[in-house]
Design a protein that fits this description.
The structure holds two protein chains of two kinds. Chain A is 44% helix and 10% strand. Chain A contains seven helices and four strands. A four-stranded mixed β-sheet of chain A has the order 2-1-3-4, with helices on one face. By secondary structure, chain B is of the alpha/beta class. Chain B has 18 helices and 13 strands. A five-stranded mixed β-sheet of chain B has the order 8-7-13-9-10, with no helix packed on it. Chain B has a four-stranded parallel β-sheet with strand order 5-2-1-6, sandwiched between helices. In chain B, helix 5 packs across helix 7, helix 15 packs antiparallel against helix 16 and helix 16 packs antiparallel against helix 17. In chain B, 58% of the residues are buried. The mean pLDDT of chain B is 95. Classes of the chains: A alpha+beta, B alpha/beta.
Chain lengths: 178, 446
């Protein structure tokens, strides 16, 4: 059976649609909602979005592959996005990234075997005055040191280990109905 | 230079540090959501004139006069849009994120005033996808403004008419190019963020093919102050044809990095050594990037230039960026390239910095973020990233400096959007100002 939205998500999608003059404009907001709901944008999810918005699969694939935050493959429960752009680089951003690679036993771009963490080398995340920094979900971690990183990993690890999904359920704010 | 209230004047950061500054009750207790009535009592054309007189210029990068941009929108269009560009991602820039988190209502009130001036009934805020926390804060503020009746409800305006505004927050999904205004519009329409050919400019054919004004967060947040205190007051705070204050985000090798609101016109030397407390660890200043990574850097001899749009483009104390030693790069029509105030992101680096590696990181960024639409940028940015990286890692070949300048010269001016220039300009700028650093690396190899 084809994938469908649950009632709550469907209402969320309808609210989004009410804010735009055509359905295609709601594509990226709806993909965000789908990613929160289903984890990643599998072929089934793309099909659901295609049916909901009357947008061709090919267009959706073009969009999904263009934006770095949209994932066709499964990612870890925690996506650690570490900035290594100039302001962070000048303050040791690469040391932080390498420290994380060592601690997690993965390279940048990879996910740990238990599905707990995905490590991403990010471009500038707009917190340059507090370099080096990283974000995880909606949380910013600023003025990082290797010691701070260790503490963060312990905290996130304990959150993610038994709850199954530590992704923020509603990272996309629900718009008001027009 | 006239700074009527001294250098401590605060316009867009006036509510920073106040507990709960992003709540409507706190904002209103400090005089917020009261200025828009004064604006709505005027005719839209009069408002646009007022903004022109204030010398408000776009804070996103290009410094285009805001009132003039608005005046390009046709007056009789049935639908127009205001789109606030909150897709902050220019390396070295971290102001919009703080503005959104700490004073979202100032933005919304500015949007109400701006929308009325250009006849927009539904405005969008395009916020960077990674800024999830800020998106929640702004959405909460939008909800509060609806509940208070400032949004979604007809308001009395000049001439006995009414005006109703809706605002929608739209999250991006991770693409630097969506900060370019036409890339942003395509993204907002549910497409890949590919920039559009101009003309037609967004003011004529923008979002959903309607006339559209795309303005930066900080730009719009100045509107309440301009209406409240008048255009002349605002114009006087700045210098030359640049009115008001400027937020500069200082990062890198300074003792006190931070986001500072300062009257336009403070010299870089004062910014680095007084405001930010100088260079740490007993090191010496080597150079800085004046307005985000797209802008050619300045060296020690150029630090007395003021942080102001026109000065950075024309001040004779700044050396011309060269295509080869002694030959200035031509922007077209004989115009020389110095640098630009850009996004206000100032990145300072000390004398311990490997400048070639720094430049290589910038090139890696543009190669990653090139949208792939135009060949010179798509291929050229990759070339620059690879060649600059090999020079940085000590594997440079004789002729690499000339090769990089040649490739950069082939990109600049030959692409649909400014990302091509944003790649080529810093490359040529670093080669002009720090050529010896590049040559030393290559000589070591040879």
């Amino acid at each position: 059976m084809a994938l469908e939205f649950n009632e709550q998500t469907k209402q969320h999608v309808d609210r989004i649609l009410s804010r735009y003059p055509n359905k295609q404009a709601a594509l990226i907001p709806v993909l965000h909602v789908c990613q929160e709901e289903f984890g990643h944008l599998s072929e089934e999810v793309v099909d659901l979005v295609s049916r909901t918005l009357s947008v061709p699969h090919a267009h959706i694939h073009g969009v999904v592959t263009f934006y770095t935050m949209l994932h066709e493959k499964k990612v870890g429960r925690h996506e650690l996005m570490v900035c290594t752009n100039i302001s962070c680089m000048l303050k040791g951003g690469y040391d932080i990234l390498e420290h994380l690679e060592k601690r997690l036993g993965i390279k940048r771009g990879e996910t740990t075997d238990d599905g707990g963490f995905t490590l991403i080398e990010e471009e500038c995340l707009a917190a340059c005055a507090n370099a080096p920094m990283m974000i995880c979900g909606s949380e910013y971690f600023l003025d990082l040191t290797p010691q701070k990183v260790d503490e963060i990993l312990v905290r996130l690890g304990s959150v993610g280990s038994d709850s199954g999904s530590a992704r923020p359920r509603r990272a996309t704010p629900i718009p008001r109905k027009a | 230079m006239a700074w009527p209230e001294g250098k401590d004047i605060k316009i867009v950061t006036k509510n920073f540090g106040v507990p709960g500054s992003n709540k409507i009750s706190v904002y209103m207790s400090r005089g917020g959501w009261q200025v828009f009535n004064k604006a709505l009592a005027q005719e839209p054309a009069a408002l646009i004139e007022e903004v022109k007189k204030s010398n408000l210029r776009g804070r996103g990068g290009a410094g285009f006069p805001t009132g003039m941009k608005w005046s390009f929108l046709p007056k009789d269009a049935p639908t127009t849009y205001l789109v606030v560009n909150a897709d902050e991602s220019e390396p070295g820039t971290c102001k919009d994120r703080e503005l959104l988190a700490l004073d979202p209502h100032l933005l919304l009130e500015g949007m109400l005033i701006s929308s009325y001036a250009i006849g927009c009934k539904h405005a969008y805020i395009y916020i960077r996808g990674e800024m999830m926390r800020e998106a929640q804060i702004v959405q909460n503020a939008i909800d509060e403004a609806y509940d208070a009746g400032f949004l979604g409800k007809p308001l009395q305006v000049a001439g006995g008419k009414t005006f109703k505004l809706d605002i929608t927050l739209h999250r991006g999904a991770g693409a630097y190019i969506c900060g370019e205004e036409t890339g942003l519009l395509n993204s907002l329409e549910g497409k890949r963020g590919w920039p559009r050919m101009k003309p037609p400019f967004p003011a004529i054919k923008g979002l959903f093919d309607a006339p559209t004004a795309v303005n930066n967060v900080e730009t719009i947040m100045n509107l309440p102050e301009i209406i409240s205190k008048g255009a002349e007051y605002f114009a006087k705070i700045g210098m030359n044809r640049s009115g008001g204050t400027r937020i500069v985000c200082v990062s890198g090798h300074v003792n006190m990095p931070g986001v500072y609101e300062l009257p336009i016109g403070i010299p870089f030397r004062e910014l680095v050594f007084d405001v930010c407390g100088g260079i740490p660890n007993g090191r010496k200043f080597k150079g800085l990037i004046p307005g985000g990574s797209s802008m050619p850097p300045l060296d020690e001899s150029e630090l007395d230039v003021p942080v102001e749009f026109d000065a950075l483009m024309t001040d004779p104390r700044i050396k011309d960026v060269e295509i080869k030693p002694g030959v200035p790069f031509d922007l077209g029509g004989g115009r020389r390239l110095k640098t630009m105030a850009g996004s206000g992101g100032v990145v300072v680096f000390d004398d311990s910095t490997d400048v070639v590696r720094l430049c290589a990181r910038i090139m890696q960024f543009y190669a990653h973020e090139s949208c792939g639409q135009c060949t010179p940028c798509r291929e050229g940015s990759g070339w620059l990233a690879r060649v600059c990286k090999r020079v940085a890692s000590g594997e440079g070949r004789p002729g690499d400096v000339e090769l990089m300048a040649n490739v950069a010269g082939g990109i600049a001016g030959n692409t649909i959007c400014a990302l091509g220039d944003a790649t080529a300009w810093p490359m040529l700028g670093f080669l002009t100002k720090f050529r010896a650093d590049f040559e030393a690396k290559i000589r070591k190899v040879a």
